Amino acid sequence: MVLILDFRITSNLNLVEIMENQHNLSATHEQEVISIGDWMITILIAAIPIVGFIMLFVWSFGGGAHPSKSNWAKATLLWLAIMAVFYGIIVAIFGAFIFSNL
């Protein structure tokens, strides 16, 4: 009976330690929020044709960007890749249709 009581106390202490560790980890992962002005500048830079494309790679894989900006840049690059494949398929289909009617 003493062994079971001991186990329950130990497991409760471990649970408290785990909860405290999770709280400490979440507190250390909190970072400053990117302001609206910073997002406006980021999107403006990304809209510049060649510079924006290069900056998307810098923000995605450069390592110095805020994690939110890095994730946004990676998602944007992924969408660009998906759209490029989609447009390639559409051009191939319509190109084949146009050249077959000549």
For this structure, the quaternary state is single chain
Radius of gyration: 26 Å
Strand content: under 5%
User: Low-confidence parts, pLDDT < 50 over ≥5 residues?
Assistant: none
Give the overall form. elongated
- Count up the helices: 4
Could you estimate the helical fraction of the residues in percent? over 70%
Task: Label the structural class.
Answer: mainly alpha
How does this model look, in words?
The protein is an all-alpha fold. It folds into 2 domains: 1-30; 36-102, no CATH class. It has 4 helices and no strands. The protein has helices at 2-29, 36-47, 49-61, 67-100. α2 crosses α3 (49-61) and α3 (49-61) crosses α4. It is elongated, with a radius of gyration of 26 Å. The mean pLDDT is 83.
Summarize the structure.
The protein is 85% helix and 0% strand. With 102 residues, the protein is mainly α.
Labels describing this entry:
0% strand; elongated; 102 residues; 2 domains; mainly alpha
Structural topology:
Elements: H1 2-29, H2 36-47, H3 49-61, H4 67-100
Helix pairs in contact: 2-3, 3-4
